[in-house]
Amino acid sequence: MSTTARTWRFYLSGFALLLVFDTLVQVSFKLTGTHAFPPEASWAWVWRIVGHPWIYIALIGYVGNFFTWMSLLKHAPIGPAFAASHLDVVSVMLASAWLFHEALTPMRLLGAGVIMLGIVCLAFAESGEQAAHDAPAKAALDAMAND
Amino acid sequence: MSPLIATLWLVNVTLDTCGQLAFKAAASDAGDGAARWRHMASRPWLWLGLSAYALHLASWIAFLSLVDLSKGMLLASINMVAIMLGGRFLFRETFTPLRVAGILLVSAGVAIVGAAG
């Protein structure tokens, strides 16, 4: 397999996993909050939260997200990668429409479309030659330390 | 926008940017496998990133107690531009037209979702 194909597979599986974890975290928080309703400054509310399985699923999602993100950043440039991670705005929007019957208004769908268009641009940007022109981040850091 | 909201917004952008750049520094500077995680844990970057992330979470919650989540999303879409600039200056990430267009489009898309309320 060529280096480009390997990098592509690495990004694709990494971002897919990140998306699953991010969506899981937000949906779990919503389910936890709904279960523990109404919010109040009392131990009763805290007990309702920790007594619900979804809060632990949210925590697992957080940990998974951290390890996936740190693995992706080994190669992924931070600027484009941070922007691409916002695909979770779209997945959480769709999950909320499906699970919680939240409205998909035209304006929200427009925003989701623009986000996806941006991610298509980023995908093409990394599949092209340009990506190879990045100085390896470690070399850039070392150069800075020696300046 | 009240001075308090503006200050919290600025603090939020700064902490998010510092945190993500520290994570990138931590992730780029390590080897493979389990040794990679041990190396990261022994260097300050990862801990700096996690501290900035925790403070960012606190500033975000404080910010959201003053503005709606949708307006918060709209305002926080600027973080992507700040992190893009940070990557350019710290890690010499190239500004190709497709990359810049992609980042600006995602940022605009998140702002539109925020403006949609």
TrEMBL record, chain A:
Gene3D superfamilies: 1.10.3730.20. Keywords: Cell inner membrane, Cell membrane, Lipid A biosynthesis, Lipid biosynthesis, Lipid metabolism, Lipopolysaccharide biosynthesis, Membrane, Transmembrane, Transmembrane helix. It is found in: Cell membrane. InterPro entries: EamA_dom, EmrE-like, Small_drug/metabolite_transptr. Its main location: membrane. It is a multi-pass membrane protein. The chain crosses the membrane at residues 54-73, 80-101, 107-125. It comes from the Bacteria. Residues 4-122 form the EamA domain. This is EamA domain-containing protein. The lineage of its organism: Bacteria, Pseudomonadati, Pseudomonadota, Gammaproteobacteria, Lysobacterales.
UniProtKB/TrEMBL annotation, chain B:
This is EamA domain-containing protein. Its main location: membrane. Keywords: Cell membrane, Membrane, Transmembrane, Transmembrane helix. It comes from the Bacteria. PANTHER family: 4-AMINO-4-DEOXY-L-ARABINOSE-PHOSPHOUNDECAPRENOL FLIPPASE SUBUNIT ARNF-RELATED, SMR FAMILY PROTON-DEPENDENT DRUG EFFLUX TRANSPORTER SUGE. It comes from Dyella nitratireducens. It is a multi-pass membrane protein. InterPro entries: EmrE-like (IPR037185), Small_drug/metabolite_transptr (IPR000390). The keyword Signal does not apply.
